[in-house]
Write a structure and sequence with these properties.
The structure is a homodimer. By secondary structure, chain A is mainly alpha-helical. Chain A has eleven helices and two strands, in the order αααββαααααααα. The first copy, chain A, is about 65% helix and about 5% strand. In chain A, helix 1 crosses helix 4, helix 4 (about 85-95) packs parallel to helix 9 and helix 5 packs across helix 7. Chain A binds a DNA duplex (30 and 30 nucleotides) through helix 3.
DNA sequence: CGCGACTATATGTCAGACATAATAACGTTC
DNA sequence: GAACGTTATTATGTCTGACATATAGTCGCG
């Protein structure tokens, strides 16, 4: 199992994690300099090699860049790779979450996923359809528990993206995954099993099965509508509650 | 000592560039090991430090991972961050381009951009509208040359994404930019100025200006339709011609 | 034939040195 | 005193050689 509270795990990755979260959290703002390599060596108890490798991890995501003599600075916000799963996770995790981001994600999903469902209805093969069906079956089985529901739910949505047979659409899976991770987080601290959403998922599956592109589009839209209402209802209460739990939400 | 055979520029970035292109180009396939650090030091005439930093750049994009003793290997294709601008560029650039990817990109644009135009029509502010107008004006001025047209064209589409006031939609800018880079490449080696597409862009702008969401959606759809037909017409000839120019396309 | 101990190997980390470029400080000239 | 060229400083960039660590592969034992 391994609990690894904070120690031991990867050198560069650990530092990048902390620094990335700090940047996304606003500790270091665009055009600010991050602490110098030597200073970070001291703080993290690591060698310059490792700190520099951490820098490269963040540089690859568009977060920082370095100039000789001047130091390493945070790049302009527009340069950040916002669709990168890690960047998204850092944004969503930081204590003072941004409710607007949650809505932005929902709106983006409302654009992408219905279209994806329609494309899947047209392009599905026996194999890709089977993957969707498997995910759906697992969802039905886990419908009583929000926690157990999460995994097949993500799998369901990703399976649809894969069934589009479009590499770019498939790539949105990472986005959906990050988004659903948060929504689940919201849902779990709210009463009520996810059972009601099962038939809505079922409708999407059914439309894809009979190659009904328009129907799949509509069904996915309806599903996301329900999710959006759920989220909207819970964002306020989540906001109230975050004050006392800072960011202690354990990743299950 | 170091003889620096090639052109001196960038250390880690240069190596990451080559390796990334090689992975996306299929030289190293998923689950394959890439050459060891020492071997790459030899090949690139660099120190292990630099090679390792290059590895981190690629690791951050999901392309590779390392295990002790076993070496550094290419991760499964599903793990690659396909929406990353560099990854996309590497895919598009490699000599044996994938025509399917070009179509996938077009289809994805057809999903995202009309929706973005509609959102922009609703959410635009004087400032964001002005940015779109400026880009359009520059397009009109450059309508006679495909090369000059490219920059304001990209700016136009990105300005619309920004005007949505949705961080996730805005992030698609990198995607559009990479896609347009290729389409321009195709267009330039084909006769005819981009002038005909100007009024189509103008219609989008006009709809956004009068806050007509549905109209903006339709206009953007029409614009992309034309682009799609253009691309479709030119992919075949591009394919034929790539044999003799391998990958000598100079970046303008 | 299965299993534990050992070894070789590639990555992971470290410390110290020098190279490089851009800024800041200085001093000279008009 | 202001403009300009020179030097010093500083943080990143690169190189080197060494040691740490985990594990795939090998060997030998039961």
């Amino acid at each position: 199992m391994m609990i690894r509270t904070s120690t031991a795990v990867g050198g560069a990755a650990r530092i990048a994690e902390k620094l990335g979260a700090a940047i996304l959290g606003g500790t270091y703002k665009p055009h600010d300099l991050v602490p110098g390599e030597i200073e970070l060596c001291r703080r993290f108890g690591a060698s310059r090699t490792v700190v520099r490798e951490a820098f490269k991890l963040l540089a690859a995501k568009g977060l920082i860049a370095s100039r000789k003599r001047a130091g390493t600075y945070v790049r302009a916000r527009e340069e950040w790779h916002m669709l990168d799963a890690d960047v998204l996770a850092w944004r969503l995790r930081d204590g003072e979450a941004e409710p607007k981001l949650v809505f932005d994600l929902m709106h983006a999903r409302a654009v992408i996923e219905p279209a994806a469902a329609a494309m899947a209805a047209r392009a599905r093969t026996p194999a890709t359809l089977a993957a969707i069906e498997r995910a759906f079956a697992d969802m039905e089985r886990a419908a009583h528990s929000a926690v157990l529901f999460a995994e097949p739910d993500v799998r369901f949505h990703k399976a649809i993206l894969t069934a589009t047979d479009n590499d770019v659409m498939t790539a949105f899976g990472a986005l959906i995954e990050a988004a659903l991770g948060i929504f689940v987080d919201v849902a779990t601290r709210h009463p009520g099993a996810p059972a009601p959403s099962v038939p809505l998922h079922g409708a999407v599956l059914e439309a894809i099965r009979r190659r009904d592109a328009e129907g799949a589009h509509r069904a996915m839209m309806a599903l996301l509508d329900r999710t959006a209402r759920n989220v909207e209802r819970n964002v306020a209460s989540g906001k109230r509650r975050k004050a006392r739990q800072t960011s202690a939400s354990a990743r299950v």
